[in-house]
Amino acid sequence: MRLGILTGGGDCPGLNAAIRVVVRYGHHRGVTVVGFRDGWRGVLNGAAHELTEEDVRGILPRGGTILGTSGTQPSLIEGGPDLVREAIGVHALDGFIVIGGEGTMGTTAAMPDVPVVGIPKTIDNDIGGTDASIGFWTAAQIATDSIDRLYSTAESHNRVMVCEVMGRSAGWIGITSGVAGGADVIMIPEHPFDIELVCRRIRRIHSERRPFSIVVVSEGATPVPGTMTLPEYALDENGWPRLGGIGRMVADEIHRLTRSETRVTTLGHVQRGGSPVAFDRVLATRLGVAAVDEALAGRWGNLVGIRGAGIATTPLTEIGAQASLVPEERMQIPEILCG
Ligand code: F6P
Fold this sequence. Notes:
With 339 residues, the chain is of the alpha/beta class. The protein folds into two domains: 2-135 and 276-319, 3-Layer(aba) Sandwich (Rossmann fold); 137-272, Rossmann fold. Helices cover 39% and strands 17% of the residues.
């Protein structure tokens, strides 16, 4: 068997661990693995080479992706799906292993005749079909470590520290790092915030408990309609708003309404860089093995994920409708702890 492999969308820690196991386990099962550069773009322009043991040696703990990545979506490009079918012939492939998030899986599902097994990755953890996506727990750990650091400097200066984390439509990084770091206020996209109520809580914490506080805000958090105006975000190549900056706005409002000295930290792409935590290395390894097994069994068109202690598969066509969002009841924990 010959399998193509690519990484699409935003990078994250753990991608190399997945590439490594697909190559190593693939070789063990008699599979040749062809690596495509920069996601689907490399399939369209023929940037590919067979991956050797040497190519993947030592990459397990490395962040990023040795294959490069892009947000290229063949289904949105005229003639794109035909070029993908052509590439299957040119490289004599039986199919692809595609490591990506919602956008990459969406464009893959839009080419149903292309044989693919999907592996979920995104620090946002918003992709359906899995309890966790590769990269999420590393990003959550980086954000938690950052909140710990902000806590000590907040305490020294009696300040409100606003920490903006990633999370476009799902607040998994925000809620996880906020709870793990003991934040006083957590603002996530699933739960619109009222800045007046946020400030009331901060005032109460400062008068009853301690004169400093930590506020975690997901980049995709939105205010209750009519309470605050968000900026117009520029759009990226696929028409998604390029988020970032809400932390500054929230910090300014908190300062205006509480008169507390306020600082803002935007973690940004630091959350996507560097070495994966053990969980992501193991997750990537398990999903890589499962993806090769699926391909060898000829079961195409599914995403492999984890459900509880086991592996589960979900048709790629259903992934878009199953986005993983933070359930409302998860907000009760911060409400109780921080209220
Ligand atoms: O990978 C998802 C994500 O981290 C989002 O949270 C964020 O909005 C986006 O990527 C930023 O991606 P980029 O700057 O690479 O376009």
